[in-house]
Amino acid sequence: xxxxxxxxxxxxxxxxxxxxxxxxxxxxxxxxxxxxxxxxxxxxxxxxxxxxxxxxxxxxxxxxxxxxxxxxxxxxxxxxxxxxxxxxxxxxxxxxxxxxxxxxxxxxxxxxxxxxxxxxxxxxxxxxxxxxxxxxxxxxxxxxxxxxxxxxxxxxxxxxxxxxxxxxxxxxxxxxxxxxxxxxxxxxxxxxxxxxxxxxxxxxxxxxxxxxxxxxxxxxxxxxxxxxx
Length: 229
Ligand code: SF4
Known about the structure:
Blueprint: H1 4-17, H2 28-37, H3 43-56, H4 61-66, H5 69-76, H6 82-100, H7 105-108, H8 112-120, H9 127-138, H10 147-156, H11 165-175, H12 181-194, H13 213-219
The chain binds iron/sulfur cluster.
């Protein structure tokens, strides 16, 4: 199941079902801030928070490093977890100003591994956030893994149940050509939200079920499991 052909086939099927959303910007700092804001909320709220930040403060490392936590909080309230997110945004902005002169391209121009290391050194930036910026702002060959992608990857069986972020990232990177990483990332998230849901996956409506180990196991009635993981 891990082979290139099957992962490409999964993406091809999903491409026929969903129209993948696209980032409206290539600005790495805006993508970074949006990804932080997206934690535990939906993209409508992120969009709204970004608009408010843009109108009231401006979305640049210098503007956000100078802004008060209260002002940032006020703008991003709609995206939830605003106490934590506002502190994180200001801290990151300050570090980018101090270490990189406010220019994230100084990180993005490094090799993939070096750039990844620098992003992971920013306060509160984890693998997913780093990889989203690297892929969507700079086109680096890295596959960001979010919670939906973790779930789907384990269910279809390209990794084992105990696989971590890096195992899942490598499996998709190995199985897809680089130019498909961005679209596959988005399509898998859409499929996770709509069909392969965290509570109860809608396997009967799933167009990639023929590729799915969980579905095949279910069909065989193995150990009387229900369609749930
Ligand atoms: S068949 Fe079920 S478990 Fe497998 S990918 Fe589809 S919805 Fe998810």
